Each structure stands twice: as structure tokens, then as C-alpha cells.
## 1
Amino acid sequence: MPILTGIFGRLRRCFNDFEVSGENCMINNDSPAIIEQYKRSLAEYTIDQLRYKSEEDVWSIGQMYIHVIDVAEEYIGHIHTCTIAAQEEHGDKTEDGTKAFLEKAWPDVRVKLEEPVNRTRNPDSKDEIIAGLEQVLKKLKYWEEHVRGANPACKVRHGWFGWLNAREWFEMIGMHSRHHLRQKARLDQKLAEAGL
């Protein structure tokens, strides 16, 4: 019973700040709030829980956190590129990209990365994850103020969603991070099944 209480408590807190609609976790494109939610829920895990892998080719919760941080940093880099670009880009979003932005949600599909799963490393400590999340939050706070002035015609191409401008890359951080809340719920279930 304590195991079930723990897993349901984690799930309830995970979705506490979100309006849940089907499989999608929706808020009003508030990327900083999503990252803050990840930071708050981190307190519920030990380092052993964060590093636990139920199978060799399945990420640990810690690896998922590292991935969310790494992708946020990558997208922040694209925001910067858009804001300093001198040349306008007239390419558009793909059909999937247009749909994702209309729904303000990443498609509800499991994405298999081409890289080996172990390339996204397991964290050495919770402090490492906290520092990464805080760095992302600091940059998001800066760009929240500055992204509005970016030329919407200056874009960087996303491999799946097509050409995105600075504002859209900012939104993508929240959309991508929300997408991984579904994965986080599955990994929490694996922890419960393992008695951790």
C-alpha cells in the first residue's frame, strides 16, 4: 500500500499545476512554469530512484531530466540564433508542426531517438539536475522579456516541425517538457513496481 500511495502522490503532484485533457497536459505555453514543476517534483526522488533503469534500453528518470535540460538549452540556443539573424527565412512549419502549435502540445507519440539510449547519461547527483534546471530557468526569464522583440520572419529549422521563430522556440521548451511528463508517469510506475 505505501508503494501505491507514493506513486499516486507523485502523479497527483506532477499534474497539480496542469489542466489534464486526455493524454495531453496543457497550460498556456508557460515554459518557465513547466521547468519549475520539474524542479519541485525532483525533491521527491532519491539519487538511487533517479538513476534506476527498469531495462537497459529504457531511460531512468534522471536521464529523462538530463534530456529535458539538454533540449531546453538547445532550443534556447535557437532562440538566440533567431534574434541575431540578419536574413529572413520564408519557410513554414510542417503539417505536424502546424498541428502541434494549434494544439499547444507535442504529438502524443513516443519518439525514439536515433542516438544510443546510453548517450543520454545518468546524473551523478540531484544537485547537478537542480543546477541544470536553475540555469534553464534563468535563461527563460531573460528570453521571456526579450523574445517579443524578435523578428518573426527570422527562423531556425526544426527537424520535425519545420521553420520556427524565436517565440515558437520559446513555446517549444514548454511543449517538449510537457510531452515528457507522460514518460515521467510511466517511469514512476516502473519505480513503484520495483518497490523503490
Note: Residues 63 and 119 are 9 Å apart (CA to CA).
## 2
Amino acid sequence: KLRNNKAYSVGLALSTLWSQLSLLPVPYSKEQIRADDYGLCRCCKALIEFTKPFVDDVIDNKENSMENEKLKDEILKLSLKCPLLTAQFLEQSDDTGDDPLRCFASEIIGFLSAIGHPFLKMIFNHGRKKKTWDYLEFEEEEDKQLSDSMASLAYLVFVQGISIDQLPMVLRTEESVFSKGLDLLENGLLRIEDNSLLHQYLEIKSFLTVPQGLVKVMTLCPTETLRKKGLAMLQLYINKLDPQGKYTLFRCLLNTSNHSGVEAFIIQNIKNQIDMSLKRTYNKWFTGPQLISLLDLVLFLPEGAETDLLQNSDRIMASLNLLRYLVIKDNENDNQTGLWTELEKIENNFLKPLHTGLNMSKAHYEAEIKNSQEVQKSKDLCSLTVGREEIPNMPPEMQLKVLHSALFTFDLIESVLARVEELIEIKTKSTSEENKG
């Protein structure tokens, strides 16, 4: 019914209603919200019903007249600060349809989108508006009110999930394909008995590309759940292969994965197969000459003493743990694994270069720590080289944490190495005494 100064009249009415609404206590518990003793929830519902005709008026007016723009501006001033900034919402698991404050927030956000101001645009454009007041104190007060409203709006959308379905999203179709592929592989593998998939199948290209593809999912997929599923599927695939198939696959992945974590996973599987062979059924693929050929791929450093120990720490720790297991479980006189006849080669190719590499790496990182501490005194930013890659402009405090973490890794490797060498010495000394006796 309003014809002249409609926007001014609506703005005045909304401002008066909001000022009265802000005086009412905000209910915090589920019981208080449902009791609504002070009528805040009922007032919010009434305010929505009061505002809706004006929103419809803006939507229906296609002329975009000056009066219509003014009316739109007044509706935009609907504050999301009070009472929503301090309100407590019912848990998502509850019947959220009975939460009047959530419904109130949803309606307001819907109004904003309906009049051509989607919430995402409002959040991103906040702070870019032109000056509208001649008096600084009015400008600052409006900025504060708007900032609080935008903070409340962001919380409602991103935390409470109200109207989040309106957000533009990019569908990553490849993740859906990966997920379905992994599910299909799992379904097929579960139909096969363990240790029954013949090694000859690995001569078929498609059979060998499956574990190689799983390695790519494990190491390159950005989604953690898919990476974990890829790891579980690789383990399931390994379980289905016969002993020679496992042996062949381990050799292949050790030669092609180029990833310390994957290699550590394979080495752990090798250890498990050796353990089963020693405890249960003799298996020629994980004892004697065949095992020694496999250990040649495990108990060595790719670049000798100059190997990047930090980058290869997972593989090195797994290799040391495997060697420690072999020393403990296999007596020199029995020599079921062939370890003791190859001990000198293992020492030359693995243990001695590892000692040298640890000394070099620790000296390098200790020097870097000293340099970082000196830089910290000067309060400058500095660069750091880790894994032969420079990380620029790192604050000295952060650099020190990285360096100390590296030293801790080296100390851990060194402690396991010392234990392995101690066990070798004890075992060889004991065998020597037995032979003399």
C-alpha cells in the first residue's frame, strides 16, 4: 500500500523492530529455545513474515527503479548480528527443522540471495564498499555492524551448513572414478582365496599395472580416504598372490616405486613373509639364495654415503628393522635366510655407508642450526635447504624446528643401527665360542 518513500518507511520499521529485538534475552539451551519464555523466537518468525512481502516486491519489480534499489538496500540492512551472532543452534543430528533460530537464519540468507545479493558475493566483497557517510563516526559504526554481520553470515554458512548447497562447487569426477575403481577391485579380490593368484598372471600387463596404479593412488591422490583405500587394496592384492607372485611383485615395486614410504611398506611385507616361512611352512622364495637376491634391493643405500637420509628415512628404518629381525631370528649355524654368508657384503653396501652418511648429515644439520641461531639474533628471514630443495623466507624459529626434527630422525636411525651392530657382534661371538667348545 505504500507508494511514496516506501524504502524509507520500510527501513525505519525494520530498524525499530531490530532495536527492540536486540533487547530480548537469547535462549541458549534446547529447552530454552523450545520454551521461548521471552518470545524472541516468535518475534523472529514474525519479522520474517513482515519482511517477505517487501522481498517479493523487489523480486517482482523488473524496472530496477531508484525506489526499488533503495528498498533493496534497506532489506540488505537486515542484521545477522543480533540475535544470530550469540545464538546457540541445535545439533545437526537433532531435528533441526524445529530450531526457530536456524530457520530464521535460513530465511534471511534466502532473502539476500533472492534480491540479487548471494551470500558468497557479500562475504568476498566485504570491505570494498564506497564511503556513504559524511561523518567518520557514522561510517565506523556502520563498518563494525557490517563486519559483525559478515562474520555471523560466514559462520552460519560454513560451520552450521545453512544454505551451503548454494555454494558453487567444482566436481572432481576423477575422485569418483578412483573410488568406484577401488571398490570394484576390492569386490573382485575378496572373491579370491589368499595365496591362490598364480605368479604367471603378473606376466599379463594388466595384472602388473594394477599394483603400480595403486601406488600412484597412494602417493599422488589428494584425498586421504582414497590414499588409505589404495594402501589397503595393495595389501589385499599382495595377500592373494602365491609366494612366487609376492616375490616378483616385491622386486618390481622396489625397483619402480621411487617412494620411501612405499618401499618401507614393501620391506615390512618381506619381513612378514620371512617370518611365516621360518615359523610355519618352508618357502624357498623367502629363504636362502632367493631371499638374498631380494635383500640386495633392500639392504643398500642408492647413492652410498651421499644418499639423502632424511628423504629415505622411512625406507632406511624399515631396512634396519628387517636386518635386526633376521639377526635375532636366524642363528649363524642354521643360516636359513643366508644372511650370515652375506654379512660382509651387507656391512660394506649398507651399514658402513650408513655410518658415514649419518656423520655427514648430522654435521651438516648441526652447522645449519648454528647458522640459524645466528640469523635469529639478527631477526632476519632466511632460506633453508631440505632434501636438496631450498625453502625460501622461512622464519628462524620455524627453521630451527625443521632442523631439530631432522636431527631427531638421524638419532633414531643411529640408535637402531647401533642395536643391529650390537646384535651382530653378540651373535657372531656366541657362535664362535660354540664352535670352539
Note: The radius of gyration is 34 Å.
## 3
Amino acid sequence: MPRGAAHGAPAPRGGHAGVPWRDDRGAAVAESTMVMTLVVLLFAALLQAGVVIHTRNVMIDAASAGARYGALADRNPEDGVQRARELLSTGVPGQSGADVAAELTSQDGVPVLRVTVSSSLPGLGFLPGPIPVEVSGHAFRQ
């Protein structure tokens, strides 16, 4: 028989004798607020990481396309640099100010054009400052 029932008083709430009943009203609101904050922060971090990866991929594509274009027989390295800048400005807004350079080198005696794109990507929310990125594309000179 629960304590207090012998004297006609109702049994304590909570299901256990002698354990005071706790008021859990409003706990779901606080809990969901804390969980939603973490979910929103995680989503924002994933979104920013996706933007950084996309920007880096566009930079790689622009460097490779610029190298292929500048390595054509009727083109020079500056044409490749110009082509890479055009692709950067259309592919990612705000990356038109990236440093683009071309260099003629040789690999096993074969002339190779290397186009290098250097830029700073915006930092992630939890990382301070910009993230420096340098990518390059190569093509055999025709």
C-alpha cells in the first residue's frame, strides 16, 4: 500500500513512494530550442563547406581550361590566362579578382603550359579569416 494511502491521502505523483513529483512542463520547448540551434549551426556549416568546395572546383576547371586553351598552336599563354579569368568571373561571382598566372615549362622534354589560379575563399563560420587556395592546370603545348 502506498505511503499516505492509509490515512486517506492520495498517493504521491511520479509512481514511486517517497519521490517528490517533478514538474516537467516546458522542458520540451527548451529541449527543442537547444536541439534546433545545433541543427541550424550544422546546416550552416555544411552549406558553407559546399560553397567552398564548389568554388575550388570552379577554380580547378578554369585553370585546366585556360591551360588547354593557351596550349593550342595558334594561341599564347596570355590567351590561357584570359580564358581562365573569364571562366572564373562567370563560374563564381566575386572570384574575378583571383590571381591567374601562366608559365611555360617542360616535362620529359615536352613543352607544357601551366596555368595557376590563386585566391582566398571566405572563411567558414567557425574558422577565422579567409582560406588561401592555389590550384593549377597543365596542358601539353601543341
Note: Strands lie at 99-107, 110-121, 131-140.
## 4
Amino acid sequence: MVEDMLAYKGIIVTHMTVREWAEKFGWQYSNFGPSPYTPPWRHMAS
């Protein structure tokens, strides 16, 4: 899927490259967003 999206933009990558990126940067995306334990008042707009 990622390979297809990048190929559409003219960027050719191998499946192994995508796997290496996932190993290197995947934890950052999995930790993105508020914690499930964030208090409700933290989500209120100011």
C-alpha cells in the first residue's frame, strides 16, 4: 500500500525499505495522539 502511494508520486521503494522505515519510525506513529488516560478537560477547546 505504501509502495503504491509513493509510486503514484514517482518515488520507487522496495518492500524491504518500507519494513525498515516501519521498524525505525513505527513506534512514533503508534504513540501519536492523546493517551486513553488523558483527563476529559484536556480535550476541551480553549
Note: The mean pLDDT is 77.
